[in-house]
Structures
1.
Amino acid sequence: MTAELVRGQNHTLPQTRLEIRVSAGSPVVAGATLGDERGTVRGAERIAHPASHRVPGLEVSRQAAADHRLAVDLDALPAEVHRVTVVLALPVGAGRPVSFGAVAAPFVAVTGLDGTEIATFTLTGLDTESAVSALELYRRQGAWKVRAVGQGYAAGLAGLFADQGVAEAAETAAAIQEAVASGLARSVTPPPRTTEGERVRHPAGPAAAGAQAPAPPVPEAQPAEPLGDPASARTEAPGGGPIDYAHPRRQTSAPPPPPPTAPPAAPGQPARPVAGDATGWSMDERLYNQIWGMFEDLARAVAAYRSAVDFAESRMDQELDRALSDPRNRIGGAGDRAREAARAKRDELTGRAREALERDLAQLAAESAVVEPALPAAYAGWDNPVWHAYRVPMEIPMALRLGDLRLGEAPDLRIPLLVRLPLERGIWIDSGRTASEAAASTTGDQLRGLAVETAVTLAARLLAVYPAGEFSVHVVDPAGSAAGQLSPLVGSGVLAGPPAAGAEGVASVLAHLTRRVDLVQMAIRAGAADALPPDLDTGEHLLIVNDFPHGFDDRAVTQLRYLADEGPSVGVHLLMVADREDARAYGPVLDPLWRSLLRITPVADDHLADPWVGHAWTYEPLRTPQGSRVLEQVLALVAEARRGGRR
């Protein structure tokens, strides 16, 4: 039976290999400190946090998130550790809550590896605190117990660490928040959660059976957000029609479960993969939720495998240390037998983990083979036949595919990278050289050209998935260096105007879009939609900026940051094609800009992190097939539909 703890209450732990689950209403930082008998933490190396997510016997998430799984092996803790304190903190940054009193009360659960709850604790009564000691696992007379703490700190992590005796507490807290900010900048934003509906998941294999820091059992799915968004910006267009930046198909109730589309599998056999077997109001929504479920499944399956391998290596080292601590065993047959036994156990654990991973990968590969051909155009690659039957849509889809993601353990299994529409954050296509193998074999000029081509194909996809006339693309190319790559957009006539060149062109486009953001924001705040100028285009706008910072003065840089921060909420989105090294002269003034954008690359690069366990995923951009004219054909249909709408 689960023990529902209140502040100060304790409960005996029946096992030493545990999982601590954290659920909060908004992203929080989760970590843990290792203290001695008095609770004193002897140095920053005894703190598990996003910048140092693994210490002996403990592993935490690498980034801020609304849900966390912390893996604990109490037997693997150093002998001098008597107390493990689970710590929660709010990430700092503009627009983020500054105290736990402004968010839903966090919930913490201690569970076994099979997910069975041992003890739970809801952290109520918090107010101005921005960091809190949630609970602690402590050793008493050879047994381990859990105690609900709930001690908050208005001074944040610095105050919490100082209370636990950490030297340089403020510096350690600042380093953690910096690591969190960097992690949020490179993390793929997960889909919002609903309270109902689960992805159809398959039983996990015993991959983590020997893991020191086991990946958690596959949790509930995270399908589309609760349908209905009262916080969305809404007003009325001059003609009386609504300016609605919420997704048009969001409703106010939970979606129905998927209809049964395939007979159940025979007992003992894996479930047959079916396209669209997630919850949703439409097939597009079910496919969207299913793809995110596959993404999470692969992340956690690989986490289980990696944790099991790490545990096997750690266990072998510990067994060898114990066996060879006696000098008599260091030479001769006894030492050799100890080494062979330790390595055999290591190989057995690793083999079991690999078998479980292979089963999970085979199931996901079979599911991918079924899902990929069923994808609509917005989710499909350019080589999918669905593009050859393309017609301009009447409404926007839920999401757009930006590329593919893969992990080293499954190089042939690609997960589509989907982002919600309308875009909630801008995109930065990195035209500079990175450490990836693909970038190393590509010249700087080639990278810049590929970056612009990636921007063109992305803009074409956005134009293709919006109804005619409801999406406009503006291009800023100050030096005219991308004329060749931009020719598909220019030649088809789908741009709002010719690419802007020179400082004057940059200033004109930025002034036009800044004015639009200002006017719509004022209309929303004042409830004066009828005051909007009749010539104001209330559709979505995309600004492509090439070769930044060439042609940008201080005023233009300020306007660009303003568009990146304020534009998405009122339908103005930013697509940067730039090398960050070229903008170093501006110093830290541009850091908020870079961090507000989703960074992608024109070649394969392992820089994106998933929102669950923080793996570094290899991103691959979408390319049109060699010799194919699908891009030109799609843009021609878009241009024809736009001309027809203006008649």
2.
Amino acid sequence: MAVHADLIFTNAAAYTVDPARPWASSVAIHDGRVLDVGGDDLARDLRGPSTEVRDLRGAFVMPGLVDVHVHHALAGKADLYELTFSANAGLAEILDAVRERAAALGPDEWVLGGAWGSTLVETVNRESARRALDEASGGRPVMLSDDSRHNRWVNTRALELAGITADSPDPDGGAIARDPESGEPTGVLLDGASTLAEATVRATGALSAEQHVRCSERAIEMLHSYGVTAFQDAGVSVDILRALKSMDDGGRLDAWVVTSMLINDPLFGFSPIGEELIAVGDRFRSTHHRPDFVKIFLDGVPPTRSAAFLEPYLPDGKHGADYCGSPTMTPDELAGWLRGTARSGLSAKVHCTGDAAVRALLDAVAAVRTEGHVDVQYQVAHGQFVHPEDIPRFAALDVAADISPYIWVPGVIPEAIAGVLPAERAARMQPNRALIDAGALVAGGSDWPVSESPNAWEGIQGLITRQDPTGQHPGTLWAEQAITLAEAIEVFTLNGAVAMGLGTVTGSLRPGKSADLIVTDQNPFEVDPMSIIGTRVTETWFAGRQVFEAG
């Protein structure tokens, strides 16, 4: 019996990201899947009595976008419940925003939000700045994240609630910044010390189960507006897992979601983590939600000198001239976690920003692969700095490079990195051309809300121009590592799906795959590369259902 399409898009400029047929003018959909792609004859051959036929009048169509690195629930929470401001904001602008926010809150409510720029760390790392934050908040507790989301700036009331004093020891993997003369905390909490404030916020102002669901729903609504139909959350809690399962059970999860369960947690203050979280993760598996990864933070971030490098940072008064940073785990600890989780069938996303952390991960993966664990997937998350000798090892060991061009094109974070690394090294970030040429799988992630939006066209333009797509920051970063538009689109579609374990499910318009696609207002192949960021999604479809329409 002939199968008729439920819906056929015709007269389209459809870029399929399928090498067997890169371009088509028609896409036929049946039962939530791509039935066929081809020419105008599809409307004749696959049309039945109840088939809907849509003439797209030449509009550009492509697979739904895939974001391999996002913190969706945190982004939804920020949009619904927190103060937001740009990483380009100065201290006075931040204080004004806090003052306005605090005026609308009760006397003991937290002012939460972000993100202050990494270049402001010395400005806010002073008792005078903490006192200014006290005044702006009217005595309410304040916790503001920086643009990397690894560090926090809090006021005096927040320090009191967290029990942080001049006598408090630095926690593992972090530091409580202190005034050099008085020894009192300045209010800046670096890396692992951030969890002291995060845990206090959760204890005094935790969200309800329904609010957690709303955070996920809001984030996915926003992702749909940018054409994202599949994503990997890079660090989840039980509350986030439970919200996703609840949504899917209720028929409200309109995206493919892969989640990463935290092994260690220098940022969020989630509980439980590690073995306890892994033990319950599979309870939350559903049709569209796959808790298939663990997440390990193997180092921090360069601006606070917590990233692990093979060569030293620039000298400073605290660390001297030979400081390289160090990974958060020994080689045996890292290999042990990878080995144990592989036995459970779990893949791993590992945060590595310095080249020493990247090498440590590749060494651990090599050991685990030798032991026969060839089916699990590994991702280097961020990997801004990779030693040239390690570039071929990505393909050899089947390790994907999860890259976030939003945060390394010229801007606030690269400027902060240039302040701690020698100029020649700081300018050699993200060797994407070299990785692709060496056969590595390169997948795109926004790291939203570290980035201000999950707009993949911003990332795509950054990949092909190596310049700031917004035009706010001048310069070109290592132009030789630019990639082509076709490669960049693949980075944010099929490559991401493959890296997440969804390569047979989504990421390209190929018969049998989920009918996840977007329609845009311009064809990126026909515009100036500097205008690609202006591409707007007019329609988003997930599993054959329209989930977003502009305007």
